[in-house]
Design brief:
The complex is a heterodimer of chains A (217) and B (105). Chain A is mainly beta. Chain A has one helix and 15 strands, in the order ββββββββββββββαβ. Chain A has a seven-stranded antiparallel sheet, with no helix packed on it. The chains are: A mainly beta (217), B alpha+beta (105).
Chain lengths: 217, 105
């Protein structure tokens, strides 16, 4: 019988913008004042309400003179943003490319931020530890290597152990990631010593948030 | 089976699965625990192994014997999770990961 540990997922945690996201059109953007089309603007600073998120910057490209023709692209992903926050991108009047002379605002949606699966009705994942060979915290995730053959066609040779990546978020991920690795090991020890007790992983560092569990080779 | 890990950082238990182990190999900075996993496609010569990474340390014959002894304890008492320790005082693993390796012959 499988033997599980339970990992609580954060529900709408403060986090970074996703890589390479764009926010465009009148349905998402408002403001901007007088807009001049052109090439991409320099990365432009933002503010956010309610307070919390910091450091996100966006470049802007407009193909016309209305906000409907404007596309913002993330330049710096920042940290601490939540779904529902309202971001204000400062006016950008540096000549020679797209400019706007009044702030542009938009409301953050789930797709704008790095992935987070936790919801009020889906606030944990169960991880079967029966076939886990070892656990390695690196690259912002707790990686569970399993004794299950898999293929990763982007690598040579493609044969790999299956890997479960429990992606975490933290304002400063190392060495807190090691601390998270220890918390996972502690829960696994409990599960091995009391099979089917389904112990919950308790994060020693309260700033650690589990975002998603992904399966990869 | 478990070993201490996190040399130079936050220490933690390194839990190592030992079901299906067919060989244990040692080399400078490495202990390789090799399993009997079968890849059904592409490459029948490969299997899976766990690589325990040791910073600036070459495992000794005693280390390998200690590891095999810990495996034996684990088999006899599965929920006991016996510790494996290296021969050199205070020396612990850095981390471990799993990957593919040629089957031992």
């Amino acid at each position: 019988m499988a033997n599980y540990i339970k990992v609580p997922l954060a529900v709408n945690p403060p986090r970074s913008f996703a890589a390479a996201i764009t926010i465009a059109g009148a349905s998402r953007l408002s403001g901007g004042g007088n807009i001049s089309s052109g090439t991409a603007s320099p990365a432009t600073a933002t503010t956010v309400a309610p307070a919390g998120g910091v450091s996100a910057t966006f470049t802007g490209v407009a193909s016309g003179t209305t906000i409907a023709t404007m596309t913002l692209t993330i330049a710096n992903a920042g940290e601490g943003y939540k779904v529902g926050d309202v971001v204000t991108v400062n006016a950008q009047t540096t000549g020679g490319q797209t400019t706007w002379d009044a702030p542009i605002t938009f409301t953050i949606t789930k797709a704008d931020l790095i992935e987070s699966d936790g919801t009020v009705t889906n606030d944990y994942v169960l991880i079967d530890i029966d076939k886990v060979l070892c656990v390695d915290p690196y690259a912002g995730a707790i990686n569970f290597y399993q004794n299950i053959p898999s293929l990763n066609t982007t690598q040579t040779p493609p044969e790999r152990p299956q890997q479960l990546k429990l992606k975490l978020d933290h304002p400063s991920i190392n060495p807190e990631l090691d601390s998270a690795g220890r918390d996972v090991a502690d829960a696994m020890v409990k599960a091995i010593q009391a099979p089917n007790s389904v112990p919950t992983v308790v994060w020693t560092d309260p700033d650690i948030e589990a975002l998603t569990l992904e399966q990869s080779a | 089976m478990r070993a201490a890990a996190g040399a130079g950082r936050i220490e933690r238990d390194l839990l190592i699965g030992i079901d299906g182990v067919v060989d244990v190999q040692t080399a400078a900075n490495h202990i390789k625990i090799i399993y009997d996993t079968v890849f059904l496609t592409n490459n029948a010569a490969q299997t899976i192994y766990t690589d325990i990474i040791l910073a600036a340390y070459t495992p000794t014959a005693n280390d390998k014997a200690n590891l095999l002894a810990a495996m034996e304890k684990s088999v006899k008492a599965p929920s006991s999770i016996p510790y494996f320790t290296l021969e050199e005082d205070g020396k612990i693993a850095s981390y471990a990961y799993a990957a593919n390796i040629d089957k031992p012959v």
